[in-house]
Structure formats: C-alpha cells, structure tokens
Amino acid sequence: MSPLDPPFTEEHQELRASTRVFIERELAPHARQWEDDRWFPDDVFAKLAAQGLLGLKYEERYGGQGGDYLHEAVLCEELARCGSGGTAAGIGAHVNIATPPIWKFGTEEQKQRYLVPSIAGQRIGALGITEPGAGSDVASITTRAERVDGGWVVAGEKTYITNGVRADFIVTAVKSSAEGGHHGISFLIIDRGEGVESSALHKLGWHASDTATISFKDVFVPQENLLGELNEGFKLIMANFQWERLAMALGAVGAMSVAWERTAEFARERTTFGRPLSGHQAIRHKLADLATSLYTCRCVTYDALRRFVAGEDPLREVTMAKLLTQRAAFELMDECLQIHGGAGYMRGDSSPQTHPIERAARDARLGPIGGGSDEIMREILGRSLGL
Ligand SMILES: Cc1cc2nc3c(=O)[nH]c(=O)nc-3n(C[C@H](O)[C@H](O)[C@H](O)COP(=O)(O)OP(=O)(O)OC[C@H]3O[C@@H](n4cnc5c(N)ncnc54)[C@H](O)[C@@H]3O)c2cc1C
Q: What is the 3-state secondary structure (H, E, C) of 44-63?
C-alpha cells in the first residue's frame, strides 16, 4: 500500500498534479528574486485565488472550492515546490492560521467581510498571538482591549507575525479582562489603519516572507469585530492548533521530498574519484537513510492527517508528527547540504546549476521553533502520556 492511498483519493492526486504544475510554473521561477527582495508580490495571492487555491476547504457560497482538509493538505505539501520557504509561509499563514478562525467562529457578516475577499485574494490576513513577552506561554499576553462605547480600544505589541507588514487585517489575541491565565483572552479582527504600525524583522531564513512586529496604539476596534465569544479566545486558539501543526508537518514532508530528489540527482551527476557520488557507498547509504527518514515522516504525518479528517481528536499523533518532522527536516537539509559539498554552502544565485540547498536548510530551521516549539510538543506529549 502506498502511503498516499489512503488518505488521498484519485481526485486529491489530480489536484496534486495540477497544483504542482502551477507552483513550478508560476512561483518557483521567481523564488530567488523574491528571496533577494525580502518580499513576494501581493498579486501571488490573486494568482492562487484564480486557481481556487486559497479556498480549497471552504464552502462554495464563500467563493471556496467546497473541498476538505485533504485538499488543503495537498497544497501544504506541494507549496514546498516553490523553492522559497518564506513564500510558502506567507501563503500558509493566510490559509492555515488567519482565515480558519473566521471560518469557524465568525458571524455571517464577518465571513462576508473577511473570508470572502481572503478566498478571492483581495485581502490578506495574519494571525497575531505572539508578543515580545509571551510566545510559548500564550496565557501571558498583555495586549489590552479596553471596553469603550461601541467597541474596544486596543494597546500593545505583537511580534514575529507572518504577513505582518502586508496584512490587511490581523486576527489578534487580546486581554479583554483582568482575569489571569487562559481566562480573559478574546480575539478581535483588527483592520490595518490608524494606530496600527508594522516594522519588518530580519531573519535567518524565510526571507521572502514579511515577519513583523505590529504595535497597536490605542486602536479603536468596533463591537462587530469581536471574533467568537468574549473572554473565550483560548478555545479559538486551541481549535486551530491541530490543523496548524499538521500543516507544518505536511510542509516539512514536502520540503524533504524536494531536497532529497534534488540531492539524489546531484549525487548521480557529480563525479569524484572516477565515479558518481552515488557510486560511493557512504553517500549511497546516507541517501538511503534520508529516504527512510522521509518515508517515516510521511507515514506518521499521513496517519495523523487520516485521524484528523476522520473526526478523531488526534492530539498525540499530530503532536508527534509536528515534533518528528520539523527536526527531521532540518537534519535532512543539513545532510543534503553536506552531499553538495562546497556547492551546498553557496547561495543558489552564485551556483545556478545546483539546488539552492542552503536556502532550504535555513528555511527548515524555523520548524522546531514556530507553531509550538519542540519543547512545548514534548510537554504536550508528556501530559498525554500521563507523565
Ligand atoms: C519566522 C517566524 C514566524 C512566526 N509567525 C507567527 C505568526 O504568524 N503569528 C504568531 O502569533 N506567532 C508567530 N511566530 C511566533 C512563534 O510561534 C514563537 O516564536 C514560538 O511559539 C516560541 O515562542 P518564543 O519565540 O517567545 O520563545 P519562548 O516561549 O520565549 O521560548 C524560548 C525557548 O524556551 C523553550 N521553552 C519555553 N517554555 C518552556 C518550557 N516550559 N519547558 C521547556 N522549554 C521551554 C522554547 O521551546 C524555546 O526553545 C513566528 C515565529 C517566527 C520565528
């Protein structure tokens, strides 16, 4: 049995084929430029929307494709083929973390105002939870929402926010009550406008994505922009964590596939001591080990995905998939870089014949930190294992 089948049906595989063609034709040729620019153009969202790729899991009445999480999973995996982790991250933040809470918890009016134009690629979203003083410890956020006539006034700062410069709206976690811990957190959809200021951050990898610090300086947010119930925001955070982490695992599996394929090709072509690199047992065995790691990551991720789609609550399996794949992807990139020798240490643009493996290695380093770090995954697993 191929690990593709289940969970994917023939229809999902057709989507995979057409998505791959689109990404390799429309996005991949620009990856190097976008990385150098530290920005990918906003019209990438419109192009993806024209292919139906921003609304795969959303209902047709909102402009979506009426598909399911498996369709979205195909996109998560295939996006790695664009060759820019930053571009994949910007698109991923829009479809996997910014719009799902509006879809799940939004009023009909909010869906019309934010979800519909997001699916059409006309408005770009971001999710703002992390703050300078609160990352893993989400309950410690301090961005305040003070009740005023007709809404709230928000003051505080979010940081490391993907799409943080370009986002038209930010799905923002705020403290709406003095109650401590997980209580008293709410979500507000904050439009870019007066009092919302972004400053871009420079990073090790994901260069094409605009990660930013966003400050809210007494921003008025109207009552109708409260997302979900007041003081029940923690539920909203928890509701999408499983999908966010699955999406990251799928992205890692996709990136590992691309890096392995390109490295095997390089090893077949590059000759040392009178034979191709792949003719040396040490290199062949390394590639065999990497293929095994890739296969293991794919099986664990697809198992968690299968359970998720079946409506189970696969907290343990999703956590394991996130933990396993993010570190394995970085380790695989490092080994692939080593197989490329000096070429692996070069920027892609100075050695155009080689896969830009150094970018892939830098991009992969985020995985064990973002979306819940390795240490937090282990804490969740520890609890779920009764430790
Ligand atoms: C490129 C990038 C994009 C991001 N995009 C977004 C986004 O779009 N929206 C958003 O809201 N956030 C985003 N983040 C934030 C990300 O989710 C956080 O960086 C992450 O949750 C870790 O939080 P922190 O950086 O504050 O680290 P901290 O929480 O300060 O942790 C520091 C280190 O200590 C470890 N640690 C913390 N607590 C424990 C513990 N109890 N036991 C053992 N070890 C512990 C952590 O694992 C980590 O290694 C992004 C981050 C990056 C780097």
A: HHHHHHHCCCCCCCCCHHHC
